[in-house]
Amino acid sequence: DWTGRNVVLKKSLSSVLMTPGVAYKISDKLAVGAAFGYAESRLKVENGIPVSSDAKVNMDFKQRGFAFGGAVFYKPLDKLSFSLIYTSQMNSKSYKGTATFVVPGSLSPLFPSGSVSTSGSTPNIITFGTGFR
């Protein structure tokens, strides 16, 4: 009976990310690396519907996407190192799935189940790090 009941009742997101990569040591002070990523995600959302206390919609989305990244590692001194890492935005435009409505029988024709989509993405990420031993 809370005011946000019709917003989101439950939400879960699960993802599997595979990122094979390679690295090459140019010298004792410098190394570079590159990686390619593939991800599959599943998003489940349950929202309330303001027609009755039991009414809700269950949405089940799936998404696949690709990304890439690169890194540079530099060690100017034995005890000091720096790294710069770039990871691209996940190349996926939308989650696609199905919506199933649970409403009183008399309202069923007004709430047909069917296909739905929503968008979401990951940002481009640049990370700088330093180490001191």
Q: What features would you describe in this structure?
A:
With 133 residues, this protein is an all-beta fold. 0% of the residues lie in helices and 65% in strands. It has no helices and eight strands. Strands 1, 2, 3, 4, 5, 6, 7 and 8 form an eight-stranded antiparallel sheet that branches. A hairpin with a 7-residue loop joins strand 3 (30-48) and strand 4. The protein is elongated and about 75 Å long. The termini are far apart.
SSE blueprint:
Blueprint: E1 10-18, E2 21-25, E3 30-48, E4 56-77, E5 80-87, E6 94-102, E7 114-119, E8 125-132
Q: What radius of gyration results from the CA coordinates?
A: 23 Å
The helix/strand class is: mainly beta
Tally of alpha and pi helices: 0
The secondary-structure element order is: EEEEEEEE
Overall shape? elongated
Strand runs, count: 8
Give the N-terminus to C-terminus distance in angstroms: 56 Å
The whole-number mean of residue pLDDT values reads 90
> How much helical structure, as a percent, in the residues?
under 10%
Largest sheet: 8 strands, antiparallel
Roughly what fraction of the amino acids lie in strands? over 45%
**Sequence stretches where pLDDT stays below 50 over 5 or more residues:** none
